[in-house]
Amino acid sequence: MRERARIVTRWGMVIDLDRCTGCVACEVACKSENNIATVPPDQAAMGRAKSWMKVVAEVEGEFPDTSLHFYPRPCMQCDNPPCVKVCPVAATYINDEGTVAQIYARCIGCRYCANACPYTVKYFNWYGPEWADSERQHLNPDVSVRPKGVIEKCTFCHHRLQQAREDARAEGRVLREEDYQPACQEACPTAAIVFGDLENSTHRVRQLKDDPRSMRLMEDLGTAPKVYYLRPRE
4 pLDDT band (50/70/90 cuts)? Predict the structure, then answer.
């Protein structure tokens, strides 16, 4: 029997720096969607703050000719991820669709992956997360609450992808581009974040990836990130 050709999917993201205003709506949405605990001030002062999507401000030029740009920075979901190579228990791995996933039950907290990541987008859970009773009502039941001693990171809201796939299957159709959005994209008020399949020429993310303004952070390291940025126009 002839084997059917496998459909290759590579989820990726393009962020337009001209559109980003630094409002951090993406950061807040990510925290709420993925049950990311708020770190107390004393822990934050020790560098233990957690934010899977972090908006980084960068000043370019010299005073008075300066400009301020904001770089929303999720996990880069690299095609050649250094974090995967150093994990001794395969708790972090790259799946068939190019997403760098994390198996929390397998993680032993050695933090090799966090040290290997040049983008500093992996976070160690230094203490057991705690929520007030009123806050527990807002936890997302589709996302696990990570325990103390494990590494956690952005997963492109993989649980949303699973739900979108189940809905499409129930309706007897293929998954459409508009069916699946990570929380950061959905919350962005200026539509600076675009998400989709980098291998599908009909997806907008693929078209923007090939834009002349397109770039990737630290591309010379050879990590091959699947998060692209559109440079600000002159």
Answer: very low
Q: Hey, how many other C-beta atoms are within 10 angstroms of the C-beta on 151?
A: 24
Residue 4 in domain: no
E strand or H helix at 85, and its extent?
helix 82-86
Average pLDDT of span 14-32: 95
CATH number for the domain spanning 121: value is 3.30.70.20
- Token pair 């709506």 is found at 25
For 89-131, what is each residue's pLDDT tens digit?
999 999 989 999 999 999 999 999 999 999 999 999 998 888 8
- Give the Cα separation of 91 and 103 in Å (integer): 5
How many other C-beta atoms can be found within 10 angstroms of the C-beta atom of residue 208? 19
Q: How confident is the model at residue 6 (pLDDT cuts 50, 70, 90)?
A: very low
Residues whose CB falls within 8 Å of the CB of residue 123, separated by 6 or more in sequence, listed in order: 50, 51, 52, 114, 151, 152, 153
Asked, for residue 2, whether it belongs to a domain, the answer is: no
Total domain count, the chain? 1
User: What's the domain range around 120?
Assistant: 11-230
Sign, CA dihedral 125-80-16-189, equals negative
Per the domain annotation, does 79 fall within a domain? Answer: yes
Q: What is the pTM of this model?
A: 0.90
